[in-house]
Sequence to fold (216 residues):
Amino acid sequence: MKFFIDTAETAEIRELATTGLVDGITTNPSLIKQSGRDFVEVIAEICDIIPGPVSAEVVALDAEGMLREGRRLAAIAGNVTVKLPLTWDGLKACRGLSDEGIATNVTLCFSANQALLAAKAGARFISPFIGRLDDLGVDGMDLIHKIRAIYDIYGFETEILAASIRSAAHVEACALAGADVATIPPKVLKSLSQHTLTDKGLASFLADWDATGQRI
Ligand code: E4P
Fold:
């Protein structure tokens, strides 16, 4: 499973990139707002840091506007993936951009039927939002399982990019469900490395090492 990071904070991206764990980045208008930076400038900087796919989202609501914005975003760097909302117009724009060879990520997916439409429209990625479904008391992971099953039955190549991930448990469940990618907030990514037994074991090894009086 590939790891994308869900952030527009370039300092965080630079730090996480040193681990070699970051396969791509997703942003959205809210994350751009949080960064306080110019949209085009920040996407260009992220594309320089991370060679993998970097999602940049359109804000137009009509297909023509999305196509126009999508082409502009794709011109920023070769690794920009144009993020489009899962609306009727978003699907039209997805088909248009995909036919032009521009990679797309169809976002705000909350049902298996929506994911089926995105795959048929040529999306490179589909982004089902797990956490926001969980917030409504609906099992977000169930959606990942359904999309995986449908895409496998019909051999769709659209990658399942599990989004709205809130916890380490979500990441583990996505991996078991066969999601191709999980886009993870930086804090959650770091939490994947943590275990109390790791901390306890390390403390006891270091105490024993100190007792030997040796140095490396
Ligand atoms: C994905 O591309 C979205 O940017 C993101 O995962 C949304 O997460 P949220 O529901 O925590 O805002």
Notes: The radius of gyration is 19 Å. The longest strand covers residues 80-85. The pocket of erythose-4-phosphate is lined by residues 6, 26, 28, 107, 127, 129, 131-132, 163-164, 183 (CB under 6 Å). The longest helix spans residues 196-212.
